[in-house]
Design a protein that fits this description.
Oligomer: single chain
Structural class: alpha+beta
Largest sheet: 6 strands, antiparallel
Number of strands: 29
Shape: globular
């Protein structure tokens, strides 16, 4: 049952004023909860052997049950990758319809990450990375050596990882893959890339924020001299939120407990602007919103919708162009002309008209 919760989470606006994150609803489900994610469509919960999708109002959109434990989910806004047992499965984000039969390997995958421009990448429990198409079909396997975690994409071909020695490595996937250490500094912990930025902790306990590139840093700065034992970090519209090893959450600048009171959480995630979701292993989940950042979230949703329309339009145009080429090869001049004109390819229209006249 969805419940209202009046507790709030402190937030900071651009002018340094304190506003409020409000818990819009909470929900108790049967645990254990293994992962939670939030995107523009709502919340994803890995619990037991199931993946549950909730709408932004807390109602259930769909559910997918499996034989083995569901332990990690990743969303691309339109598609979801789920890790369960030794397999990776891919679903339509809106309907929950499976898009693949699952791809299994001995030992399974540690995590999955959406690839810029489409597709997925997942490290196994050895020293390989596995590349997949957006529909979950395997593309290739790369032997890159042991990695501790995937940090994120700098672009479609450059992936940043933290290795077992605490070094940040940039892996180039194009052609014959290669990798390089972006610097010799060792980090005991780091966050995922979010908006091109990341947090890192050095051996002295100092916290840094940086913007990496394949050869080093565009910028890097120290934001804390110590006293933080980070376990997870997420970036919302008002900056970074950090969860420590005891499950307490606080804002990286304010150094406060973020208004969760005496409660601790095991998992949390943000949509990058005005929503933070959290969960305990036992099944208490919360959806928190910032009224101050809600406008930013709407703008982000509109941007995502625009980008998705552009992507679908590009896919449609590619399909039309391939159909026009096939029609031309088969001598179906009228059909080819119709498609080339619809695509605005006047040069191809003139060329086909010439071929048509020559054939007559």
């Amino acid at each position: 049952m969805v419940q209202n919760d009046r507790r709030s989470i402190a937030a900071i606006d651009g002018g340094g004023r304190v506003s409020e994150w409000r818990v819009a609803w909470s929900h108790q489900i049967d645990g254990p909860v293994n992962d939670v994610k939030v995107d523009s469509n709502g919340m994803l919960i890995c619990t037991g052997q199931s993946l549950i999708a909730l709408r932004p109002d807390g109602t259930t959109a769909w559910r997918s049950d499996h034989i083995f434990d569901a332990y990690s989910a990743e969303s691309s806004e339109s598609i979801v990758a789920l890790l369960t047992g030794t397999s990776i499965h891919v679903f339509n984000r809106i309907t929950g319809s499976p898009l693949s039969d699952g791809r299994s390997i001995p030992g399974g995958y540690r995590e999955a990450l959406y690839r810029t421009g489409g597709g997925w990448i997942a490290p196994d429990r050895g020293d390989h990375l596995h590349l997949f198409r957006e529909n979950g079909r395997g593309v290739r396997r790369l032997r890159v050596g042991p990695t501790r975690m995937l940090v994120g994409w700098m672009d479609r071909e450059h992936l940043l990882c933290l290795d077992n020695d605490g070094l940040l490595r940039c892996i180039r996937l194009h052609g014959e893959h290669a990798q390089r250490i972006i610097e010799n500094r060792r980090w005991t912990w780091c966050s995922r890339l979010s908006g091109g930025r990341m947090l890192m902790l050095d051996s002295s306990g100092a916290m840094f924020e940086g913007v990496p590139n394949p050869f080093g840093w565009d910028e890097i700065s120290r934001i804390s001299d110590g006293g933080i034992d980070p376990h997870r970090a997420i970036r919302a519209g008002d900056g970074w939120w950090i969860m420590d090893l005891e499950g307490r959450v606080r804002h990286s600048i304010e150094n406060s407990d973020a208004g969760f009171g005496e409660d601790s959480v095991d998992l949390f995630h943000s949509d990058g602007s005005g929503v933070i979701v959290s969960a305990t292993r036992e099944g208490l989940i919360r959806w928190s919103e910032s009224p101050l950042l809600s406008g930013m979230r709407v703008d982000n949703l509109r941007l995502l919708e625009t980008e998705e329309r552009k992507r679908l339009d590009w896919m449609q145009r590619t399909s039309m162009f391939e159909s026009a080429q096939e029609a031309e090869e088969e001598g179906l001049w009228s059909r080819a002309l119709e498609l080339y004109r619809a695509l605005g390819r006047e040069e191809d229209v003139r060329r086909v008209l010439g071929l048509q006249e020559g054939s007559e």
